[in-house]
Amino acid sequence: RVGIAHGFLYLAVIMLTVSVGLLLTGKTVTKRNSVGTTEIFRQISLTAKSVIKSPVLILVTLSWIFYNSIQHSYQGLWSAKWMAFAFPDKTQLSGLSATLVSVGLMCGTFFSERLKPNSMNRVRSTIISEYFFAISALLISLSHLTSVSVCLICDFILGFSVGDICIQQTSYVREISDDTISSSITGFMNFCSSLGTLFFQWVTGLSVDLLLLKRIAPKSAYLITFVVFALVNLIITVLCVHRQRKF
Predict the structure, then answer these.
(1) Three-state SS at 180
(2) Is residue 76's pLDDT more than 70?
């Protein structure tokens, strides 16, 4: 409707306005709650030690990295291209792929707790969410071999599973860690997942390019790449679940 250049210009203006608003409203709060550099590094050290000493937190962090990386890479880079290659006669619908991931993510975040029985404990809820995402990652790959409708449905399911696992794992981390550093641990996990996303985007792009150089069809190159990473994620999930059950 407005064009890419104008669209990004409007986003930049909105971001600048929000930034100024945060600066003005947060100035007094920052002064009141400011801490010294020594305290910040002490908190980082405590967080790192808490994660390293806990096999459960290590595996949850690895799972966190994979689900963020798969979702961001697929939705942000490959979904429209992959669908266009898989269904060349339906290229006008390829943009819906990333949109339905976002819609699913919002629904998953909103309905995650509402769909779980109140009697179900957090460990079991987290395990179900982790398996749900691992299976969704495989489904999203295989859906490109069927039809556009199935692919779009699986896009929604993938997004829903990401929203669900985000809620469950965040709550799980808060329950198994000390209240004084649970937020720091979640921040550490987000930091790792951000680095993981950058790495994952590079590796998936490299994988697709190498497969294309071997004259493999583009839709097959995407399929092979994401099936491999979905299977690795499933292995990580099984390891994580095994530790969580012990806990």
Answers:
(1) coil
(2) yes
